[in-house]
Each structure stands twice: as structure tokens, then as C-alpha cells.
Design a protein that fits this description.
Strand 2, helix 5 and strand 3 form a beta-alpha-beta unit. The chain is built from seven helices and nine strands, in the order αααβαβαββαβββαββ. It is of the alpha/beta class and about 200 residues long. It has a single domain, classed as Vaccinia Virus protein VP39 (Rossmann fold, 3-Layer(aba) Sandwich). The chain starts with 9 loop residues before the first helix and ends with a strand.
């Protein structure tokens, strides 16, 4: 039986357990190896769109320290309150990543440990969102599952939905929307087993 009905609970779970999640997540930056790969491709003072930004710690913290300007999007107002308290000079927006539309194109788009909570159909539709906020040269980085399917994890005793497309479909969607894959590692042992995509918007 499909589990995608559980995807409807994601926003509420991260609202309900915002403070607990931030405490659990901590400040260990296991993503640094990939953030550095992204940063190496960006101009100075790059504008970064962070989808599912949470409290801004630790990912946005590191990017801000490297001179980036952050526009963070999250559905949890409590998470955003923490982000605004941490970094009042940055832009923090309460919105559903599937539906917002900013009149701005970014140097980088980051969807780390957020995109994979969407259903497979919503993930397919997100590539139009990525393209809408990208210009030629924009870097896109996101995490996915390693293969087509759904997986149910746990967040403070409640079911936590994840889904993934097959790598071949991600490659097809990226190409369809004008992104070239620069790097992709399945279950990267240097990044706590995350499957990571790094792509760049071409001229089309």
C-alpha cells in the first residue's frame, strides 16, 4: 500500500517538533564537503535560495560565514523565528517550497534533507520550481534517496515520510529543465550516507 498519505504530515511534524529537531540536529556540519563543492562554483557574495532552511543552523550559518546572502524558505514558523533570531539580516520566508514564486533568480539553490520528504509526483514538479528561480550558471544541490521508492523513518516516535525517484529519472528531469549534472554520489560515506546531486543550469 502506498505510504504517500504520510507526506501530508511532514509540515505538521516539523512545526510540532521544531525545537526538539533543532536540538537533535546540533551543529555538526557533516555536509561541509558538499557545501564546499558548491561554494567553489559560486561568485563572491552569492545569493543562495535555501529550501527547507529550518533554523538556519548549521548549513546557512556556514554559507553566511563564507559571504553568501541567504533567502530561506520553510513551512514552520517556529523554525523561521529561530532563523530570524539567529540571522536577522537574512531573508526568511514562510512558504511551501512547492508553491512559492519569488521575483528573483539565485546563484545557488539548495534543497538539503527537505526535497526528499515530497511525494514522487511533487518531486517531479519541483524541477520547474528550480528552473523558475535559476539563471544561466545557477548551481543546484539537493539530496535524494538512492533508488526509486518510498521509505518511512521516524521523528520523535512518529512516522516520517521520504520518497525518491530513480537516478535515471532525476538525470532526465535535470536535463529537461536545462541542468547539467556536475557530481552525484549515492550514499556518500564522506557525508553520513547521503545521496547528493550537484548540477548547474546551462544556457537553455
Amino acid at each position: 500500500m502506498p505510504n504517500n498519505h504520510l507526506s501530508k504530515n511532514i509540515i505538521e511534524l516539523y512545526r510540532k517538533y521544531a525545537r526538539e529537531w533543532v536540538a537533535l540536529r546540533g551543529e555538526w556540519l557533516f555536509e561541509k564537503v558538499w557545501l564546499d563543492r558548491m561554494l567553489a562554483l559560486l561568485p563572491d557574495q552569492a545569493n543562495v535560495l535555501d529550501l527547507g532552511c529550518g533554523s538556519g543552523k548549521p548549513l546557512a550559518t556556514y554559507l553566511i560565514e563564507q559571504g553568501c546572502a541567504i533567502t530561506g524558505v520553510d513551512s514552520s514558523e517556529l523554525m523561521l523565528q529561530m532563523a530570524r533570531a539567529n540571522f536577522p539580516e537574512q531573508m526568511w520566508l514562510q512558504a511551501d517550497m512547492r508553491q512559492f514564486n519569488l521575483a528573483q533568480k539565485f546563484d545557488a539553490i539548495l534543497a538539503w534533507d527537505s526535497f526528499f520528504h515530497l511525494t514522487q509526483d511533487d518531486q517531479r514538479q519541483m524541477f520547474a520550481q528550480f528552473a523558475r528561480h535559476a539563471k544561466q550558471g545557477t548551481i543546484l544541490m539537493f539530496t535524494s534517496g538512492p533508488a526509486h521508492g518510498e521509505a518511512i523513518g521516524e521523528l520523535f516516535g512518529e512516522p516520517l515520510y521520504h520518497a525518491s525517484l530513480a537516478p535515471e529519472e532525476y538525470r532526465h528531469l535535470l536535463a529537461q529543465y536545462g541542468f547539467d549534472v556536475l557530481n552525484m554520489v549515492v550514499e556518500d560515506p564522506e557525508c553520513t550516507g547521503h545521496t547528493v546531486w550537484l548540477a548547474q543550469k546551462g544556457s537553455q
